[in-house]
Amino acid sequence: MAGRNNSTLLCVSLVAKTVEEMLIDMGRAKAAGADVVEIRLDNLAAFSPRQDLERLLRDRPLPALVTYRPKWEGGEYEGDDVKRLDALRLAMEMGADYVDVELKVAPEFANSIAGEKPEKFKLIVSSHNYESTPSMEVLGDLVASIQVAGADIVKIVTTAVNITDVARMFQVMVHCQVSC
Ligand SMILES: O=C1C[C@@](O)(C(=O)O)C[C@@H](O)[C@@H]1O
């Protein structure tokens, strides 16, 4: 993940099943040298948005990225998108440093927070391909769609099946810059 001054940030994903365990893992991530933690809300066995986000964000030792990944994009959340996006908006309002939303719902989400984004908040728009790494042309179109959807940070996850796939991902990163 790229930092505000274009330096690389190390982000550790927290995938514990309870808030208590996630809080412990945050401390571990910091001790291990992480710069950012990703709170994967979809991994929590039970989740009460206001109460749990308050606990997870209040005393966080590191900047937090909040993700609530639906099944249809490889996550664990099976409920409806209205509740999911409401929780992500709430995370932003409660001080999350970053929120990650999937490209498919990004335009709707970005519109819903337009004019309300806290100054330092960044919206990550993500796309996942768990089978392959597309051609440079397809990746280029994907970057453009993500930028148009309102991303502050472009995130593309693909699956490398060949060593040349990695080279393409480095190439595409040059085009991922979004003016801040
Ligand atoms: O988007 C991603 C990618 C990921 O799902 C992976 O499988 O690498 C891991 C997630 O925590 C993250 O939000």
Automatic annotation (TrEMBL):
Name any one Pfam family assigned in the record.
Answer: DHquinase_I
Superkingdom of this entry's organism?
A: Eukaryota
Q: Which organism is it from?
A: Colocasia esculenta (Wild taro)
- Name the GO terms of the biological process aspect: chorismate biosynthetic process; shikimate metabolic process
What is the name listed in the Swiss-Prot or TrEMBL entry for this protein?
3-dehydroquinate dehydratase
GO MF assignments? 3-dehydroquinate dehydratase activity; shikimate 3-dehydrogenase (NADP+) activity
Q: Which CDD domains match?
A: DHQase_I
Extract the SUPFAM superfamilies matched here: Aldolase
